[in-house]
Amino acid sequence: MSLFTASGLIKEFRGLRATDHVSIAVESGEVHALIGPNGAGKSTLVNLISGMLPADAGQITLDGVELTGLPPHKRVRAGLSRCFQVTNLFRKASVRDNLRTAVQAHRGSSFRLLGTRNAEMEINAEAESIAAQVGLSHTLDHIAGSLPHGAQRQLDIALALAARPRLLLLDEPMAGMGPDESARVVELIDELRKHMAILLIEHDMDAVFKLADRISVLVYGKVLASGNVDSIRANPDVQAVYLGTGEPT
């Protein structure tokens, strides 16, 4: 059984079918990339998976647990965490305080009610551990909004990691980055795959081909093809609609 499955997902907006019986599976320890041209339905699909939008039909499961119909926070508790296209930070707070807040939120306790110094020390230690995991230990006391764009994206990923996810949804993590910043995020994702499965939505095809174990191609709300990197590279329909040679046969 796959770690994560989305089966037959349908979503319509005023009669327009944005996702049309979309099915996708992610295995444990896998980076599964979702690609497709603008307007293909990728953002809608991620919103359905994360619970930001309700599906009109279909089923979503994570490690055998039914997620369909659950609100986003309950999906997070079940092991699904998401990073958005636009960074979602407390921009005026320090990196340390951003991470402390995320850890505290997922522990379900208030700092005012921690009760013991040990509990607060544990939260601080976990925040510092996550910062080290994403390469931000040297920025812990920096204001989040003052970080370079690439470091802000790393912090956004770190906040998602505070939920200790089984499946991490990364929505265009390389967007707006230069080559050096993108390379650092590629290295980070390659390290994270050792600890969790990743569903990666990304337009940077060099990054996709470096990272993905499998790729699914979404076009007009439907999965056009799904397979390993070599099979997707060689698929003439994928070349037509995504790599710029025309229309699918």
Secondary structure elements and their pairing?
Elements: E1 4-13, E2 16-26, E3 31-35, H1 42-50, E4 57-62, E5 65-66, H2 72-77, E6 80-83, H3 95-107, H4 117-133, H5 149-161, E7 167-171, H6 179-192, E8 197-201, H7 205-211, E9 214-219, E10 222-227, H8 229-234, H9 236-241
Parallel strand pairs: 3-8, 3-9, 6-7, 7-8
Antiparallel strand pairs: 1-2, 1-4, 4-5, 9-10
Helix pairs in contact: 3-4, 3-5, 5-6
Task: Explain what this protein looks like in three dimensions.
The longest helix has 17 residues, at 117-133. By secondary structure, the protein is an alpha/beta fold. The protein has one domain: Rossmann fold. The model has no long low-confidence stretch (mean pLDDT 89). A six-stranded mixed beta sheet has the order 6-7-8-3-9-10, sandwiched between helices. A four-stranded antiparallel beta sheet has the order 2-1-4-5, covered by helices on one side. Helix content is 37%, strand content 24%.
What is the terminal separation in angstroms? 33 Å
Helix count, DSSP H or I runs of 4 or more residues: 9
The major sheet is characterized as: 6 strands, mixed
Strand order, largest beta sheet: 6-7-8-3-9-10
Query: Roughly how much helix do the residues carry, as a percent range?
Result: 25-40%
- Class by helix and strand content? alpha/beta
* CATH level-four homologous superfamily name: P-loop containing nucleotide triphosphate hydrolases
What is the count of distinct domains?
1
From the 3D structure, determine the CATH topology: Rossmann fold
Sketch the topology as an H/E string, one letter per element: EEEHEEHEHHHEHEHEEHH
Structure summary, number of beta strands: 10
CATH architecture: 3-Layer(aba) Sandwich
Protein name: ABC transporter ATP-binding protein
GO molecular function, one term: ATP hydrolysis activity
InterPro entries: AAA+_ATPase, ABC_AA/LPS_Transport, ABC_transporter-like_ATP-bd, BCA_ABC_TP_C, P-loop_NTPase
Keywords: ATP-binding, Cell membrane, Membrane, Nucleotide-binding, Transport
